[in-house]
Amino acid sequence: MPDNSTDQRSEHKQHGGARTGAGRKKGSGRFGEPTKVMRIPASKVAQVKQWLAQDQAANCAPEVNAQKWTGLLKTQGVSLFQSVAPANEAPVSLPLFSHKVVAGFPSPADDYIENRLDLNEHLIRNQEATFLLVVEGDSMQKAGIKDGDILVVDRSIEPSDGKIVIAALDGELTVKRLSIKSTGTWLVPENDDYPPIPVREEADMVIWGVVTATISRF
Amino acid sequence: MPDNSTDQRSEHKQHGGARTGAGRKKGSGRFGEPTKVMRIPASKVAQVKQWLAQDQAANCAPEVNAQKWTGLLKTQGVSLFQSVAPANEAPVSLPLFSHKVVAGFPSPADDYIENRLDLNEHLIRNQEATFLLVVEGDSMQKAGIKDGDILVVDRSIEPSDGKIVIAALDGELTVKRLSIKSTGTWLVPENDDYPPIPVREEADMVIWGVVTATISRF
DNA sequence: ATTATGAAAAATGTAACAAAAATCAAGTTG
DNA sequence: CAACTTGATTTTTGTTACATTTTTCATAAT
């Protein structure tokens, strides 16, 4: 301020002034939460940045198309790099027939048709937040998840008790059932050969997303 | 350095000294490259750390083997879909990851995406000959096919021994494993409550197609 | 009442710093 | 002379500090 000689006169220029309650609100940043600085190898800076940007996009992902999809909807956690494929319409529409059809080939024109189904639409509620994983191992055998299955994982579903989740443990992804009890949090395999895994801290494990479907090929 | 008064005498304590070429080598850090500091939202610090830690560890061997499934099978009432004429493809391509992905980041920086997969393309090879069946009843749960599962049935595949087939029996569609032995042909339910069904003549039943995949939702 | 203005508070990117780790060669020891 | 010590030197690394920017709001001005 160049000229501040006469305080009495300077008033005519003042608009603001000391006041309480002013200032930027907490959580008004990009991430809605406090941040920390950390050191990242140069070659991965871009990747991390992209990941952070994607994660925001996934978190505010719109409701795409869900007719008969039951499930909680909430955002949380991770996201991945993924090119958004413009979902054009009318791809694979599959007519649904009654199970009472007998020998003979049902025609789509028949009134046997109960419904039409597109596998992508049926299995993917939030494309931005969905990815696929190939299962290795049989720790979830009793849940019907077998080695080689393809899991449909939705990151936008809030992990909750009883959900089958993808968790990063010891640097590997595992699929387990999440058990949140008063006694603590557990990752429970659905195979008697494997013991439940206690989860002590957040750092122990990162939950990637919730398994919404599994696909087995014969 | 407490005593440095007399340089001539101080030599007796000196081991090192000014020299060139000393010092830590470049690239000797954890990442083998220079680093940068960046600001990360607090909730994601753990994920980034885990990813960075994992990334230096062993590289993963991407072994995607989607077909070593040796499962049982089951049958019950089913609902029927049919595939419809192949529409213009606007594939909803999803990222397909291998097992070794960590904390929100794929492990190897570049080939993290094993593949991109469109579920329709992946599951429906011959669209005009493909049906979808919704399984009714949970008698096949033990075999990995549960109530509400969607079966992908391909009519263009030749039924052979061991295949899981859709057969029309008594005006209803059922899922059975086809057993063609020297002793005869059987439709074998994978459920103790149901006996194997002998197939005497072709007219006894009509095989609609071969099950190529099953989809379970959670 | 509406708008303009600037102060207050938080967010953000980068610089700076201290401590730790790594590395080497001169000096010491055997 | 070879092996070991040891401190100097340099990079790494986690954190703090700081200068900007952004957001928000109370108040003056209209």
Task: For this entry, give a set of tags.
alpha+beta, 218 residues, Umud Fragment, subunit A, homodimer, DNA-binding, 28% strand, 10 strands, 7-stranded antiparallel β-sheet, two-stranded antiparallel sheet
Layout of strands and helices, then pairs:
Two copies of one chain form a homodimer.
Chain A: H1 7-10, E1 35-41, H2 42-59, E2 94-97, E3 113-117, H3 119-123, E4 130-134, E5 150-154, E6 164-169, E7 172-181, E8 184-188, E9 197-199, E10 206-217
Chain B binds a DNA duplex (30 and 30 nucleotides) through strand 1.
Assign the structural class of chain A, choosing from mainly alpha, mainly beta, alpha/beta, alpha+beta, or little secondary structure: alpha+beta
- Rounded to an integer in angstroms, the radius of gyration calculated over CA atoms of chain A is 26 Å
Rounded to the nearest angstrom, the distance between the terminal CA atoms of chain A is 78 Å
What is the topology, as strand order, of the major beta sheet of chain A?
Answer: 4-5-10-6-7-8-9
CATH-assigned fold name of the domain at 42-83 and 127-215 in chain A: Umud Fragment, subunit A
The name of the CATH superfamily of the domain at 42-83 and 127-215 in chain A reads Umud Fragment, subunit A
pLDDT averaged residue by residue of chain A: 63
Using DSSP, what is the number of strands of chain A? 10
Counting copies of identical and different chains, the oligomeric state is homodimer
- What top-tier CATH class of the domain at 42-83 and 127-215 in chain A fits best? Mainly Beta
Largest interface: A-B, 91 and 101 residues
- Relative strand content of chain A: 25-35%
